[in-house]
């Protein structure tokens, strides 16, 4: 039987004795598409750090692919919310994607023809192979996001972790991006952090609601009332079909 992509049992974590997560039990299965939502300070980023083995819980256990998170890190493609590259430094798109090979070949290893082919294939998978020589700083927000996904894919991951992947995307880019994630989900688990409830309800299978504790709901069962009950405040949903516009925000969570 294949181990879950992520398994947490009784996990608690505090910063300077201030509890952030308490008694978390969570499983993310192979090829599951899950989304993490919750208020600022609720523990979303802490969860990602625990998945990546960047921090250790004060109590409980975290397993990634059945082993220690730090050992599994090379099997995870991580896409941050923001990528900071000095705009004065003319790094090309292909060079950004090749950074994804560092975890496989080593920091000081010479780039091989195999690395370049893998990076180009990753760019092609996000439909940006025609921009490989373009300076990264010249790209639109949506194009930059897809380059960062290509960088993650170049590491040949078995799971993707994405932090606010649709932030800054226009409607056309977001539609393309969502289809790409659905394709990738056919071969790997995807866990994303998002504030976009339309994305959550339409694209993901399960919703990981984080506010010190963790509750998991099926995306189709998620209602504004459930979110109000857990987080407080007014919750509004996004209609991505734009046929029945509703309120579209639930606070800066």
Question: How would you describe this structure in keywords?
Answer:
253 residues, alpha/beta, Rossmann fold, six-stranded mixed β-sheet, three-stranded antiparallel β-sheet, 9 strands, disordered C terminus
Task: Explain what this protein looks like in three dimensions.
With 253 residues, the protein is of the alpha/beta class. The protein is built from 9 helices and 9 strands. Strand 1 and strand 2 form a beta hairpin. The C terminus is likely disordered.
Report a brief summary of the structure:
With 253 residues, the protein is α/β, with parallel strands linked by helices. It is built from nine helices and nine strands.
SSE topology sketch:
Blueprint (H helix, E strand, L loop, with lengths): L5 E10 L2 E11 L4 E5 L6 H9 L6 E6 L4 H4 L3 E4 L13 H6 L3 H4 L7 H13 L15 H13 L5 E5 L7 H14 L4 E5 L3 H7 L2 E6 L1 E6 L5 H8 L22
Parallel strand pairs: 3-7, 3-8, 5-6, 6-7
Antiparallel strand pairs: 1-2, 1-4, 8-9
Helix pairs in contact: 5-6
Helical fraction: 25-40%
Distance between the termini: 36 Å
Question: Quick one: overall form?
Answer: globular
Percentage of residues in DSSP E strands: 15-25%
Top-tier CATH class of the domain at 6-84 and 158-231: Alpha Beta
Q: Strand order across the biggest sheet?
A: 5-6-7-3-8-9
Q: Give the CATH H-level superfamily of the domain at 6-84 and 158-231.
A: P-loop containing nucleotide triphosphate hydrolases
Count of beta strands:
9
Q: Provide the residue-averaged pLDDT.
A: 82
**Radius of gyration, in angstroms, nearest whole number:** 18 Å
Q: What is the name of the CATH architecture of the domain at 6-84 and 158-231?
A: 3-Layer(aba) Sandwich
């Amino acid at each position: 039987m294949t181990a879950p992509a992520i398994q947490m049992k009784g996990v608690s974590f505090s910063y300077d004795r201030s509890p952030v997560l308490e008694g978390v039990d969570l499983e993310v299965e192979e090829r599951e598409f899950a989304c993490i939502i919750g208020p600022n300070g609720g523990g979303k980023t802490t969860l990602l750090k625990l998945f990546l083995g960047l921090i250790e819980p004060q109590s409980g256990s975290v397993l990634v692919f059945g082993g220690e998170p730090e050992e599994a890190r090379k099997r995870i493609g991580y896409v941050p919310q923001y990528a900071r590259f000095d705009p004065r430094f003319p790094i090309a798109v292909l060079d950004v994607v090749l950074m994804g090979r560092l975890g496989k070949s080593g920091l000081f290893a010479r780039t091989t023809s195999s690395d370049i082919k893998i990076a180009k294939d990753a760019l092609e998978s996000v439909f940006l192979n025609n921009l490989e020589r373009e300076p990264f700083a010249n790209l639109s927000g949506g194009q930059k996001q897809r380059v960062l996904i290509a960088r993650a894919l170049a590491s040949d991951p078995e799971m993707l972790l994405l932090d606010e992947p649709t932030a800054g995307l226009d409607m056309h880019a977001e539609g393309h991006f969502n289809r790409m994630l659905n394709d990738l989900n056919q071969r790997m688990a995807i866990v994303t952090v998002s504030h976009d409830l339309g994305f959550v309800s339409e694209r993901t299978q399960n919703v990981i609601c984080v506010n010190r504790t963790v509750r998991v709901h099926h995306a189709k069962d998620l209602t504004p009332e459930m979110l109000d009950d857990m987080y407080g405040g007014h919750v509004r949903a996004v209609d991505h079909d734009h046929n029945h516009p509703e309120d579209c925000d639930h606070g800066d969570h």
